Amino acid sequence: MDRVLGLAVVSSVLCVGSVLGKYVRGIVNTKEDWVFLTRFCFLTDFGRLDFKFRYPKSRCCQNILLYFDESSQWPAVYKRPEKDCYQKEAVLRPENNQVINLTTRYTWSGCVVEGEGDEILSCVGGRSFRSVRERWWYIALSKCGGGGLQLEYEMKLTNGQSFWTQHFSADEFGILETDITFLVIFATVFTLSCYFAYNLKGRQLLHTTYKMFMTATGVEVLSLLFFCIYWGLYARDGVGNGSLKILGKLLFSVSFLVFLLMLILLGKGFTVTRARISHSGSIKLSIYMTVYTITYIILFIYEAEFFDPGEVLYAYDSPAGYGLMGLQLLAYVWFCYAVLVSLKHYPEKQPFYIPFFAAYTLWFFAVPVMALIANFGISRWAREKIVNGIQLGIHLYAHVVFLAITRPSAANKNFPYHVRTSQIGILLSSPKGMGAESFPHHAYGNSSFLGDSQPNFTELFSIHSAPVKTIDEAVGWKGQEVARNSDQKIITTTADLSSTFSPPPPPIPPRSSTHSPPPPRLTSHFTEYFSMQGGAGMGSKA
């Protein structure tokens, strides 16, 4: 019976010209004697249902049933195959006007007979809803005793006359205002990120991870823009454009996935402590993001095709939703391991990684905790608007924190980047295993920000290395000695240059006023000394 009922509901939905808004219309033609039509969350005093029903008089007499969300009402009859049609009607209270008998004998139904021959019962009327709190109301059609159901219906469900409430279900109140507010805030964040990116590009510090952050923020702005357009159209006519809402959800998911990938890459040290991710790490990341994306797609399909319209469900209250929460926790474990490894090899990056790790630990747990609270801790008549605000707040927190810790300011002690984009190309051109993946050790210093938009050329072409032990050597030139410096490394090499250079020219005779002896001649075999600059050493002299 449930299967047949489900097919009947699906067939009725397929016949609907517009079911996306609170103008609901369609055709029911089934052998079942009890069918669910739609649901709506009405306010305490302003709820209103206006209807128009038409069906052949030969299929008389059919009833419109109005259930509310108390445990003794809708939950007691929906998906209860052990109860027949009469038992499902018995839970209603006629004194509360919960049954609309679609016949000419029932005055309040507004039914009249139309046509000659094949007479049609046409019923036009309405109902007002009053209750002690906002309630979900469920509308069903019945004809107990057999014969099946045949009905053409059109319903308009409203809450008051205000632009912000009229066509919205009570659980959707405030969503449009919330989305507009967050659209303005995210647009501001995106504008600031573009300004910071301009400064970073001038200093050759605009790395791939920052571009990913800008992409995630820009896509979030587009997502909110489409949501605002959808809800604005919906507020105007009660129908809206469902494609805009779907596009907004897709962009919202893309923004989340890009931001999640950026966090994992930063945790692994990409563009902070290394120029490339290892081959095995790239494969693992690709597999993980592919699985995450597929799970998101499954969630969309599941929500669109398998969510029961007779129940108030949340997107994460599904197998795919629980799968996403599991993948989120797995990403956090990976994130923790990556950050710890990066700190182990680059302890000087603690000013960045410690606040980074602390801030996004909260973010990683916020999404699963929010989903669990939404599923089990928020009343169904208020769930959608509360979850919408919390979800946007979590995303805003993540973006604002990243914008703050990467701002290009000399006062920012958490700034992560110290290697310039012009140096990464040189590092990547090095063979693997020769230090191409890892950056040299270098703590972030304020000297990277000497001018408003000019790079610091004193660091641009320098290759930094860790301090090493000094090798003391004496230079046989006028008895001078090389000073011991713990930040310098002196490398001694011997080269045979006789085949390369011609013998030196004879010395120029000194002037009569000069009494200094002529300089000694260099032999064809001599020792050359080269000094490589250390992390904090002075310029080398040869």
Offer a concise description of the structure:
It is a multi-pass membrane protein. By secondary structure, the chain is of the alpha+beta class.
Structural commentary:
By secondary structure, the chain is of the alpha+beta class. The protein folds into 3 domains: 2-159, Jelly Rolls (Sandwich); 174-292 and 331-405; 465-506 and 520-542, no CATH class. 41% of the residues lie in helices and 16% in strands. It has 12 helices and 11 strands. The chain has helices spanning 2-14, 74-77, 85-90, 175-202, 208-237, 242-267, 279-305, 319-345, 350-376, 383-405, 421-428, 457-460; strands at 23-30, 34-42, 47-56, 63-68, 99-101, 111-114, 120-129, 135-142, 149-159, 489-496, 525-532. It has a 5-stranded antiparallel β-sheet. Strands 2-8-4-5 form a 4-stranded antiparallel β-sheet. The chain has a two-stranded antiparallel ribbon with strand order 10-11. Strand 6 (111-114) and strand 7 (120-129) form a beta hairpin. Helix 8 (319-345) packs antiparallel against helix 9 (350-376). The longest helix has 30 residues, at 208-237. The radius of gyration is 37 Å and the shape is elongated. Mean pLDDT is 77; it is low at 1-21, 443-501 and 522-542.
Question: What is the topological layout?
Answer:
Blueprint: H1 2-14, E1 23-30, E2 34-42, E3 47-56, E4 63-68, H2 74-77, H3 85-90, E5 99-101, E6 111-114, E7 120-129, E8 135-142, E9 149-159, H4 175-202, H5 208-237, H6 242-267, H7 279-305, H8 319-345, H9 350-376, H10 383-405, H11 421-428, H12 457-460, E10 489-496, E11 525-532
Antiparallel strand pairs: 1-9, 2-8, 3-7, 3-9, 4-5, 4-8, 6-7, 10-11
Helix pairs in contact: 4-5, 4-10, 5-6, 6-8, 7-8, 8-9, 9-10
